[in-house]
Write a structure and sequence with these properties.
Blueprint: H1 12-40, H2 44-54, E1 60-62, H3 63-70, H4 74-86, E2 90-94, E3 102-106, H5 108-128, H6 135-155
Antiparallel strand pairs: 1-3, 2-3
Length: 162
Amino acid sequence: MTSEGEPRWLDADQQRSWRALMMGMTLLMERLDDDLSREFGMSLTEYEVLVRLSERPGRAMRMAQLADAMAHSRSRVTHTIARMEGAGYVTRGTTPEDGRGVVATMTEAGYDLLVRAAPCHVESVRRNVVDLVPGEDFAAVGRVFDRIADHLVARHPESEIR
């Protein structure tokens, strides 16, 4: 809003770019999810959980921290982890430090699934994003979203996921 209370409407070029971004992101997330689901019976969210856990010492992370890192609600992560636990890809337990927090830990089966799914996922990312645009355009996208992330993370540092 401006100081006079009027919205600062997007011009035609900004509107076109905004809609392209929204449509592209929606379709991209659906495609990445579909590829993982078809090949490995897992969702993009489940893949992201395994990636996050694989990057942590002991392949373990507090559930609250995992939810923050994925920018998902705690209840959504709890449901996702429950499904993954039922499939044998993660376990849940209490934290060794204080015994109060809940920790998700990747199992060997979860790690094996991640190792098998990663080539499919990276190929899908390449096919549907990276290989479609010149390198300098892809680098520009990275700079744009780093700037956006910096702005949004400043208000919520716990959501830093890069």
